[in-house]
Design brief:
single chain, 239 residues, alpha+beta, Alpha-Beta Plaits, 5-stranded antiparallel sheet, two-stranded antiparallel sheet, 8 helices, disordered N terminus
Length: 239
Amino acid sequence: MMARTARLKETYGIYYIYQASSAERPLFGSDEDRSYFLEILKRAQKKFEFKLYAYCMLSPNAYHLVLDPNGSDLSSIMKSINIGYAMYVKCEHPLFRDRYKSTPLTSDEQVQNQIRSIHQQSSSVYNSYCHYDLKHPLPLDWISPLTKESYGGTSLTGGDQKVQDLSCQNCITTFDDAESLLIRIAKEDGKTATELLKDKACRNQLIKDFRRQSTLSLKELGALFGGLSESSVCKILNK
């Protein structure tokens, strides 16, 4: 088995991101799934402060983004988005087909062409873009994609639905289910659970995600993530 090619770790520049689902399950089984993904995307943008120029999730089997990491690590951004969504979707098999694909867009023309190619001129809330302008990507303080708003002359949404709450949905209620999910997330990253948890930044984010998406106690979270004490888990959650 050939080793995977390492990604170029660029923190600036604009990228076209493509992520496909595995053959086991559609990435988006309903508009409810798409709505939840948009909220995860918004949460990640707030955390990492990346610049977002376009998104599309009309296909049941893939999503597309055009973004600038804006100084953040692209790998960390994508891991946060994909792990957050994988935790929401209950699936026995890996949710994603391989890793996401990232293509650097090295000219204004490439950026404009890519935005045009993924924006299908629909009024759907799941397919939006802004007129390409380095100074005006989709704003960091954008109102939820589920709320009607206009930006830069381009409608970002098509409805007046309320913001979907990011409270615990499809909540994990048992340690065994949590362990199975952790193993699946690791497989989607091409690693074992032990290898995944060696990355402390990733481990700490997972602890926060599992706390949000499960009913596990602090003791159970500590056991799941390598035998951490309850006080250590508390410190991570409070950072």
